Amino acid sequence: MQHDRVVVIGAGIGGLVSAALLAARGCDVTLVEAAPGPGGKLRAVMVDGAAIDGGPTVFTMRDVFADIFAACGAALEDYITTRPATVLARHAWGPDRLDLFADPAASEAAIGDFAGAANARGYRAFRAEARRIFDALDAPFLRRTNTNPIALGWRMGLRGFPDYCTLRPYASLWRALGGYFDDPRLRQLFGRYATYCGSSPFKAPATLMLIAHVEASGVWLIDGGMHRLALALEALGRANGVCFRYGVPVHEIVVERGRTSGVVLANGERISAGAVVCNADPAAIGAGRFGPAARRATSAMPRRRRSLGALVWTGRARASGFLLVRHNVFFSPDYAAEFAALGRGRLAPSPSVYICAQDRDAAAVQADRERVQIIVNAPPDGDRHDLSHTEIETCTKHMFAQVSRAGLTLDLTPSSVLTTPAGFERLCPSTGGALYGPASHGWAASFRRQGSRTRIPGLYCAGGSTHPGAGVPMAALSGRLAVECLLSDRASTARFHPKAMPGGISTRPVQTVLTG
Questions:
Q1: Second CATH level (architecture) for the domain 2-81+225-303+439-495
Q2: How large is the greatest C-alpha to C-alpha distance in the chain, in angstroms?
Q3: Residue 147 pLDDT level (bands cut at 50, 70, 90)
Q4: Tens of pLDDT, residues 170-210
Q5: How many Cβ atoms sit within 10 Å of the Cβ of residue 148?
Q6: Is the entire prediction scored with pTM above 0.85?
Q7: What is the distance between the alpha carbons of residues 188 and 513, in angstroms, rounded to a whole number?
């Protein structure tokens, strides 16, 4: 029946999770995706016949996915093989380097050796504060529909009131870190967690230090690469009856009598449905990418609110000099100047560089050429500016110069693939190449994110640009929240379905709640 059918637009993590969970609950689910396969930003790029992760590279909050697979009658370990990483990341400032470990005591000792006992004590206090903030927000905010500050206080209750008063939304992350670390390199290291959601540590609230707790709680390595997670979620959906249709862009979200009634594909085919979950960036709906009728469902994203974009190289390389681990960060000598340049819409002349060496375990040394992904932050202006050959050449030169300061020599193969903000705009329209949705700048940013429900009944949003935020586990939680909202609204509609009354009068339908 049309009422039971759900169309999911997009096979990113949020869409894949939504589809699998809905099918497991008995819904007739069709997922349509413009690309030829699943993953969205969690994509694999083929280079010289090898699949290389071209999107997110860090897998945290494994419990989120274990719960999703369990809710679908399956076990995560039957679909992917994961191993805990012992080294979380290797960090370099020219010749200086510091590793963070899965064992917090080892990280504390390493920080003490690197920057002295006072900074080791500062790390211990910072770690406790990051955990406190995460624990305070995990259940009432990250795992529930979007809300406002007052309602969040009610959710946290009297017992959580002291934490509510000390979530640190008004101080910047950069300023707060000064209270824990007097070594500017450590302030830079832990300020980098703001970039995990595409934000500047100078503008993001100190609340984001909770990301440090998420990473310290465990980073997992997926055999075969992160893209295997997308394939696993697709297989989970198929096992529960999801119909996947790839290579079929959605032209329009159909709205009739004030609510969603299906989609029209680019080939003119119409799929009728009682609800639609859109895993595209909400800004694409508000910009009219899915037709004028659906445009009012969300708001267009002002350019000033976009998160960071990036230049991403994926390819094979011969690395020498610096011993790479899986995750490596080479910091700019002037972090403030780097983010000032990005804020002005320019590439930084001395950028920080992230390298994921995908063939390496924590202490493994690889020979010959290995798979790498290299990331440099960039302005999210891919919808109005395509980098010239000269600009790309200059940025590439600066990237190589930055890693060479730490003693790393990289020889990338000519077949390596570079994706610019313009390329990401083509993959994710109406974003300008912003990889994380809206930036988390200012105390209200988290509350302004698009929630699961939209202004049009029957149309829901999921993905890293919606609540609770950017990142693979957050996108998965957004998919779960979209499902909860959809099923709750459907139950409410069924409960209060208009019925004939004596005298020929019908009751008015209850209006679907539009917040969340």
A1: 3-Layer(bba) Sandwich (3.50)
A2: 87
A3: confident
A4: 899 999 999 999 999 999 999 999 999 999 999 999 999 99
A5: 12
A6: yes
A7: 43
Three-class secondary structure of residue 289 per DSSP? coil
CB 199 within 8 A of CB 439: yes
Through-space distance between the first and last CA atoms of the chain, rounded to whole angstroms: 27
- Contacts of range 254-262, beta carbons closer than 8 Å, 24 or more positions apart: 254/291, 254/293, 255/291, 255/293, 255/294, 255/456, 255/459, 258/456, 258/457, 259/456, 259/457, 259/458, 259/459, 259/512, 260/294, 260/456, 260/457, 260/458, 260/459, 261/2, 261/458, 262/2, 262/7
Return the DSSP state at 464. T
In the prediction, which pLDDT does 366 show? 56
71 vs 78: CA distance, rounded Å: 14
Angle at 464 between CA 463 and CA 469, to 5 degrees: 120
| Structure confidence by residue, pLDDT tens digits, 229-249 | 999 999 999 999 999 999 999
The two structure tokens encoding residue 288:
């009219």
> Is pLDDT at 501 greater than 60 in this prediction?
no
Whether the predicted pLDDT of 59 surpasses 80: yes
Length of the chain (residues): 516
Each domain of the chain, given as residue ranges in start order, spans 2-81+225-303+439-495, 103-217, 308-427
Inter-residue contact 85 to 100 (CB < 8 Å) = no
